Amino acid sequence: MLGMIKKDLCMVKNTKFLFLMALVICVIYSFMFDMDMSFFLPFMGVISIVSTFSFDDYNNWHAYAATLPQGKVSVVKSKYIVTIILTTILTLVSILLGLVIGLIKNNYNFDIAISSIMGELVAIISIAAILFPVTFKYGSEKGRMVLIIFGLGLGIVGLLFSKVIDFKLPVELIIFVTKYNVLLFIGSIVLILTISYVISKKVYLKREF
Amino acid sequence: MKNAIEIKNLKKIYPDFSLSIDELKIPSGVVIGLIGENGAGKTTFIKSILNIIKKDSGTIKIFNKDLEEQELDIKKDIGVVLDNSFIPDTLNPKDINFIMKEVYDNWDTELFYKYLKEFKIKDSQMLKTMSKGMKKKVEIATSLSHHPKLLILDEATSGLDPIVRNEVLDIFLDFIQDEEHTVILSTHITSDLEHIADYIIFINNGEIVLEKERNEILDNYGILKCDIDAFDSIDKEDIVRYKKTKYNYEILVDDKNKCKKKYKKYIVDNITLEDLMLLIIKGGK
Q1: pLDDT digits (tens, 9 = 90+) for A19-77
Q2: Does the beta carbon of A81 lie under 8 angstroms from any beta carbon of chain B?
Q3: What is the distance between the alpha carbons of residues B274 and A111, in angstroms, rounded to a whole number?
Q4: How confident is the model at residue B256 (pLDDT cuts 50, 70, 90)?
Q5: B50–A58: do the CB atoms touch at under 8 Å?
Q6: Which chain B residue lies closest to A12 (C-alpha atoms)?
Q7: Interatomic CA distance for residues B262 and B214, integer angstroms
Q8: B43 pLDDT band (50/70/90 cuts)?
Q9: Is the pLDDT of residue A179 over 80?
Q10: B91: which chain A residues are within 8 Å (Cβ-Cβ)?
Q11: Residues 6 or more apart whose Cβ sits within 8 Å of residue B28
């Protein structure tokens, strides 16, 4: 399986310019507009992994991969492992960047920074978790459609909750989430990725190339 | 002689096409030429023996091991070049070496770089910036660099200029010097097969219509050419297939020496694999 991981990492490595641009955007927006950009780098990580699916499809990689003595499962596993590796690294870079910028601007709050990045990561991982099984089943084109529909759907639901419906989270829930945020964060990430991986594996094993 | 591949009652059914092979034994140490028109079932056959597509029934044994039970073990000893399917083209040969070292236990970096040097390919050049022929050379180098016992090549020589094609065919001939090595070469360039194939398997409409030694085909089959008026005088038993041209009939015969003696008035030409394909596919019966 290491071969498959190396292959995806090599492909991600070739998009390093994208990450450099993302880093510059993060710095500029954080300094000039005082925006929280901690989500941006991990999000770009997921985008770059999604782009590896497109290149895989374009080159009919999956048929070739099926001829290798690695097994189909390793193709699926590697995408998830590389997602975890990449988002972890980019999250750490994001935290470090936020810390440096916060210290320079003298407005850094560790608790708020960590809480917000944990929430954002759950959202980013959820996008990948929905996208991967669809892409493994139908290919990258349809996967992208799902991403757009998912994004639009999420936007509409968010708008509904914030504008149309006067929705407020119960105080008990907020206290509970705040108290157990780390556990909840790890639990949700593990659960989301496990469910997604099991579905991806199932659909990919059935697929013919 | 040991068999590299044994197939029994293989069936793969699609809504508009099916592949059906009752029995096929491919011995070790030979080059098999796979011919047939587009959509005849050559790629389906190759994908079936690589388990890329799931067969509906039948058994496939490679190196005397059941493909379903020992798939990954079998694939360690197979080198593959597929038509339009390879490692993503955002990578370069250096990356391929870095990846394949982990994929194959017996990946030979030195051998891979030897082939790259032979093919005049830089290891830092991205596949997407390479010509079709160069990319094909990288695919061939990749397929050979883990010392496989079986090479499965789907249109591996297409896109290569005649000089490089000859170099590549020489590499395949070198490969086959080891009597445990086997090559299955599917190609539309049938003249390549006339040079290197030991056996020819001709697939048409999902079935094997001819499976013979190359020399047997080229030595025995022929094309008898006769006038339109004289066609009726030819014994029907001697006609395998026939084609009516503007001025005469071209008749495929499977014993050209007998026909040369029997029909002294007419010409019996030697056959090429291309002629054979055309007459079997397009000719009347």
Answers
A1: 888 888 888 888 877 777 888 889 999 889 989 999 999 999 999 999 999 999 999 99
A2: no
A3: 75
A4: very high
A5: no
A6: B90
A7: 25
A8: very high
A9: no
A10: 7, 10-11, 14
A11: B1, B2, B3, B4, B149, B179, B180, B181, B182
Residue pair B260/B214 in contact by the 8 Å Cβ criterion: no
pTM (2 d.p.): 0.88
> So what's the architecture of B3-214 in CATH?
3-Layer(aba) Sandwich (3.40)
Distance CA(B135)–CA(B133), nearest Å, equals: 5
| String of DSSP letters for A90-149 | HHHHHHHHHHHHHHHHT---HHHHHHHHHHHHHHHHHHHHHHHHHHHHH-HHHHHHHHHH
Distance from CA of B91 to the nearest CA of A (A): 7
> What is the tens place of the pLDDT at every residue in B55-88?
999 999 999 999 999 999 999 999 999 988 999 9
Give the minimum alpha-carbon distance from A167 to chain B in angstroms, rounded to a whole number. 47
Top-ranked range on mean pLDDT: pick from A29-38, B90-99, B229-238: B90-99
pLDDT at residue B234 tops 90: no
Domain ranges for chain A, please list them. 2-206
Q: Nearest-CA neighbor of A63 among B88, B31, B187, B188?
A: B88
Question: Tokens representing A102?
Answer: 């916060």
| CB-CB under 8 Å, A64 with B85 | yes
What is the length of chain A?
Answer: 209
- Tell me the domain boundaries of chain B: 3-214, 221-282
Residues of chain B contacting A71 with CB distance shorter than 8 Å: 71-72
Cα B269 to Cα A92: distance, rounded to the nearest angstrom:
76
